Amino acid sequence: MEFHVPGPVRSLKDFFVHLGIVTLGILIALGLEQIVEAHHRVKIGHESVASFRHELAENRDHVNEVLASLPHMHEQIQAQIARIAALGDAAPRSGVPIQPPSLRYDFLSTAAWDTAIATQALNYIPEADARRYSEAYTAFRLFMDEERGGLAIWQELHGFGTDAAALTPEQRRSLIQQLQRYDGYASVLTVVGRGTLAACERALQ
């Protein structure tokens, strides 16, 4: 920054006048810089919130779709258990197909939140709002953790093959237990999903 003295300094009064002019110019420049910086911070905060709301709304739709599929999954599991349990310990004369229930696994995004943390954009958002968004994203992560747990059980079900008639009575009992575990997972996912949706709605209100 370069300063130019308005004119020759002939007296102490002129010196203080010139000093005041320079000081005022510096204060105005600093004030303008602060205004520009404040506007930039507000813009970043608004952009981050818009990204949160868009991402949370998409995640909410995915969770609703998963929850809508769970009643049918429960019916599939119970029908499968009934067919296998009816075999008892007898050797069946015909094949009884093992049909693992359909799996619905939707990817939930946290990119907007992760980016805001990495860029420290949360500093430009009101604390109460940031807390609500944090709770929503935490809930979505918990939902995804539960989904991954169910995926592991679903994969283990395929280890029993495709025909319950080819299994020993002990293996069929193990298969039933595994199906019951998967049914329990669906029940837990329902509870977690409802809590996740509630947290999401609080963030989006």
Q: Which features would summarize this protein structure in a list?
A:
single chain, mainly alpha, 4 helices, 205 residues
What does it look like?
The chain has 205 residues and is an all-alpha fold. The chain has one domain (12-92, 106-204). It is 73% helix and 0% strand. The protein contains four helices and no strands. The protein is rod-shaped, with a radius of gyration of 32 Å. The model has no long low-confidence stretch (mean pLDDT 84).
Q: What is the topology?
A:
Elements: H1 12-85, H2 111-118, H3 127-157, H4 169-204
Helix pairs in contact: 1-2, 1-3, 1-4, 3-4
In brief:
The chain is mainly α. The chain has one domain (12-92, 106-204). It is built from four helices and no strands.
Largest β sheet strand count, sense and barrel closure:
none
Portion of residues in beta strands equals under 5%
Low-confidence stretches: none
- Which outline best applies? rod-shaped
Please give the number of β-strands. 0
- Classify the helix fraction into a percent range: over 70%
- Which structural class best describes the helix and strand composition? mainly alpha
Domain count, please report it. 1
Order of helices and strands: HHHH
